[in-house]
Amino acid sequence: MCNGKVIFVSQREAETIHPEPGVAMISITDPGKPLAELGSWELIYRDSFFDGGYSEDAIHIHKDEFRMRYCSYIDSEQAEKLKNFISQLISSGVNKIYVHCYFGRSRSGAVAKYLVDQFGFESNKPIESPNMTVYKLLCNPVRFEPLIQQYEQAAKAPKEEKQPTISQKFVDLLMVALGLKK
């Protein structure tokens, strides 16, 4: 286990921190918003996704439209890139990592929780409300992919025409006879 320190802060606080040699900054901003003004960090990772979550239930509800509806939330590819960046930092001996999101609580809290749980980092403050979707995807970036892909593949599959049952045919004939259907 690493004896590192993770400092998670708001974007406003992060913009006042001066870059330090051998120290990393992970910057998470909202889509469509300007990048944080952070200076020239030697080790910096930037990404943009909303502070929102989803679960298997959301995937079941939205089916093959899930990616479109949640396109601005963290996805497996973003989680994999962030996880790899963190792994490279740890492998190279970096033991101090700053993380920021807009308010410095949820998305950055999820990254801090990941560093604490997976690498034994110490946090600068209690992690009270981490974004659990971000955290779960850092732990397992492809966590939701099989289910998402199942719905996407089902939507692309040729549709089988269902043959009407005898009772459906009878109801149709009855409705035609009564003049309710043509």
From TrEMBL:
Organism whose genome encodes this protein: Vibrio albus
Lineage: superkingdom: Bacteria
Name the record gives this protein: Tyrosine specific protein phosphatases domain-containing protein
